Amino acid sequence: MVIIASKEGQLANRIWHASSFIANAFENDYRILHLYIDEYSHFFSERLNSTHHPLRIAGKKSKWRNNFLRKFFEFVLKFSRRTSLRKFLFFDILLHEGYDDVEPFDLNNVQFIHKAKSGNLVVSGWLFKDSMNLKKHKEKIVELWTPNVNYRNRIDNFYKRYHEKSDLLIGVHIRRGDYIKFNNGTWYYEIADYHRKMKEIAAMSEFSGKKLGFVVCSNEPDTKFTTEQQFDIFFEPRHFIEDLYLLSRCDYIIGPPSTFSMWASFYGSVPLYMLRDITVNVDMKKFQIHF
Hints:
There is one protein chain. By secondary structure, the chain is α/β, with parallel strands linked by helices. The protein has helices spanning 11-28, 38-41, 63-83, 110-118, 131-136, 138-144, 149-163, 191-202, 240-247, 259-268, and strands at residues 2-4, 32-34, 55-57, 87-88, 91-95, 105-106, 120-124, 128-129, 168-174, 212-218, 231-234, 252-255, 271-274, 288-289. It folds into two domains: 2-144; 149-289, Rossmann fold (3-Layer(aba) Sandwich), CATH 3.40.50. α2 links the parallel β2 and β3 (55-57).
């Protein structure tokens, strides 16, 4: 069994992080206990909350038990960091912590798979990857992370209402808030910058004769746009699950580098253009489905 004992960011980060392990577990037949996904699990389908897949979600039945496990493994990880020991009682420990300063750990590592299958392996860190099996087991991964029926119905209603007015829907992920500090503010753009990109896309020859609708997803609910004649802007209060999976229903997505839009691209097989430099014109050739 693999025990995921580190809390990696918010929703999309945790989905991506867990999905690499899940895909690897599907391929190699071991189980996963996740200590930090319970706060989001109720948003997802009955499939995620069943037992017919490798992932086990701590805290679903007993918050007390989950709090105990978290505290226990926090102690285990602190002990391992301080002593450099990689074994504690019945647990092997794998620390691969850091971001820009470390290479991704390949989950197809032979020793990792052996320990995952034969014992209890506690892992901590963000950069654990298995791109090969994410692609191979994409259908199963997508099924697991499908929203529950209530959110699916709400997402369908939003989508139908928007699509009735538009030939094509362009998802626009506006990420501000924490991005004012993240990566030194490189991808913290003004609302006017996003609006300018919408106008730029609407004027592209590839969309000539098409009525475009821009589905805006923002973590700032008071975001304002001026009325446009050449295209519609769809922005209204929605739950973040609705935003995420509406993006996955669009025909194209634009936004700054973020696991949120990357997950929408992967889940819905939607071409994504990352706004790494807001001053560079959008290039249709650089829209790519993530993975």
